[in-house]
Amino acid sequence: MSQSIMTEPALPPTEPSTLRPKLRLDGLTHEFRTGGAPPVKAIEGISLDVAPGAFVSLIGQSGCGKSTLFNIMAGLLQPSAGRVVLDGEDITGRAGLVSYMLQKDLLLPWRTILDNVIFGLEIQGVDRREARAVAEPLMDRYGLGRFKTHYPASLSGGMRQRAALLRTLLCNNDVILLDEPFAALDAQTRFRMQEWLLTLWKDFGRTVLFVTHDVDEAIFLSDEICVLSPRPGRIADRFDVSLPRPRGRNVVTAPEFIRAKERCLDLLFSGGQPADSEAA
Amino acid sequence: MTDNVLSDMPAAAQATSSPAAHLKRPLRRKGVVIAHEKSWKRSSIWTLQVGIFVALIGGWELATRLGLIDPFFWSSPSRIYNAFIIVIGEGTLFQDTWFTFKATIIGFLLGSAIGAAIGLSLWWSINAAAVVQPYIVVFNAVPKIALGPLIILIFGIGISSKIALAVAFTAVITALAAYAGVRAVDDDLVKLTLSLGGRRRDVFLKIVVPSAMPWITSSLHINIGLALAGAIAGEFISSQYGLGKIIMYAGSTYDMALIWVGIIILALLAIVLYGAVNWLEHKFTRGQNVKTI
């Protein structure tokens, strides 16, 4: 246990096999039943293979069941049908094996930023002092060093999200789920956070599933994009983004970027979907 | 361009074609100047507080000397001072103060701890909480002082009956506060802990208890007064020691000055306890936004 937490950034992903998907979603379907009302199908038949170390974005309008899907992947919700497979092992309904981060930073207000960052390790049974020793150099390296002894209330939204993301990455899980982590940030902060996220993704070599409303954000960050249809959520389209990395900001004018954007927007707004539901 | 649009606005609003034409023009077109009270210097507030105290004491003394009020019922600062010197000379005052103080502190700590334990434990099962809730509500509504004679009979006239009353006065308050804190725990924090692989025990110790802490500590402020009231109530009913006994005795012998001595010492005790609770609260709720009563 104590050895595995010493994960140094900049190491290649520990999983050498590229043949086997890191994470496989197999026919995930979920219905919500509330009282006598007819069941509501949130997602239907979602199947997806995610390669080790890949950055995959899911985009879709609100109400396409993204949160349901993430809760199932995180093991917080038992799906009506289907399986979640991690490294070939069925982990459906088991929590603690993939990390999960929400739009809300969910920092514990009574803990300092350092103790928030180690929260995941602590839950996984790592001794507090040992966890702090792991986290401190990383906080220095990723721009949180000044805030170690601060409480979350005194930090800006961007810094709070950084701490939350570092907490998510520090947990010893190869797959991390990010559910619109930057949606509440202003445009400039969001831009810096996206670049910061890519740095960490490269350094830690994790597999990332990223949910967003923002098509530009998805294309800028991802290797692969899945477009979800409105309720019940299904994978309507799936394609690779082969723009070379590292990507600069001017990538938004590249022809491939524009083609990918058109493809996404066509799918999102086809079928006479009301445009305002996208802003929610 | 922009200027034009703005200056045209009122005209457009009055035009019959505008959809807003039927709206009445507001009467107060000048806007409202918002008044802000400027905060005084700390030294001015302090001076005023001392000034009011001196004026009250001085006025009281003067009024009795001029015969405006009857010192037999109202006593006077100088009489209270003399009474104070006399009881100190008798040497039992310290013992009585210590008795009340001890009963209050032990009752306060015990009652608050029992209450917090009950309130927090209700998190473990929503069903258990639902079953227990009416009992807590009823016990909260019952005037605890009515339990006094019963508690004296059960626990005797020594310190344990005073402690028991202080516990009865304080425990429900903290139990209700802790339970309110437990219900206000952010579900997403619970979800986060579970998604990290945490168990119910982790959620309880690392999320529920710290989240409920501001609720619990804010109940402690109220508990100071209640624990003192419990101890004094016990001493009123039957006791060999304590400030409550002194006050009761003084009342039965029409010794108004001595009553005031008891009250003043009680007030000083309350201030000391209040300071201690503030310190505790600060220590246990760091990072959380707490407004002290």
From TrEMBL, chain A:
SMART domains: AAA. The keyword Acetylation does not apply. The keyword Membrane does not apply. One of its GO terms (molecular function) is ATP hydrolysis activity. It comes from the Bacteria. Residues 1-20 are annotated as: Disordered. Pfam families: ABC_tran. Keywords: ATP-binding, Nucleotide-binding, Transport. CDD domains: ABC_NrtD_SsuB_transporters. Residues 23-255 form the ABC transporter domain. Belongs to the ABC transporter superfamily. This is ABC-type nitrate/sulfonate/bicarbonate transport system, ATPase component. It comes from Kaistia soli DSM 19436. The lineage of its organism: Bacteria, Pseudomonadati, Pseudomonadota, Alphaproteobacteria, Hyphomicrobiales.
From TrEMBL, chain B:
The keyword Transmembrane helix applies. The chain crosses the membrane at residues 46-68, 105-124, 136-157, 163-182, 203-233, 257-277. GO terms for biological process: transmembrane transport. GO terms for cellular component: plasma membrane. Residues 10-21 have a biased composition (Low complexity). Its main location: membrane. It holds the Pfam family BPD_transp_1. Belongs to the binding-protein-dependent transport system permease family. This is NitT/TauT family transport system permease protein.
